Amino acid sequence: MNIRYKLNGARHALATAIVLSSLLGANLTMAVEEPKFETVLKDEAFEIRRYPPLVVATTLVPGDMDAASSRGFRTIADYIFGNNTATPAGASAKIAMTAPVTVAPVVPAASAASSDMAAEQWQVQFVMPGQYRLDTLPRPKNEAVSLRELPARTTAVLSYSWLNSEAKVQQKTDELRAWMKARKLEPLSAPRLARYDPPWTIPMWRRNEIQIDIREP
User: Across the strands, what pairs with 94?
Assistant: First the structure.
């Protein structure tokens, strides 16, 4: 009887923790700024979007996808958390976190490589909050971080949930490319993995996307 009671209690505690964790993750995610876009086409999990010009902080990192993602995230997070110069006097400033964080293999545009995961260098990128322009952002102290403005672009997107392994990302990239090919959409960039959620988010509620910039259809 005591064992059954303890098991039921443990299950209840676990269920409560899962719900609280998901609500916390959802609330934090909702509070984080995301880039605005116009939806041109929606086809189940696939989309075509138009993005306006965006200012980004970016860094190039060697290694495999997981190692590069982690190292790149820390490098840019260090910049937005204050390793920067915001005034002529040298004072620093904190910049709000945004979503998504993207990672892309450094390969030739519109590459037809059999595996994007074979890349040896990756570009990790944060979109800067909309209140900033390129000339009003604090300057990074770390030379590995660069700031630039991306032009307006049209992007094909495949959305999905759960965790990201190299095999999963390659599978979703191949699915997006097949969808694009069937609609005669010309790729203009390497694929980007976009992740929207903090690491404690339950896998089934994680928001992931594969994004490939395309020529306007």
Answer: none
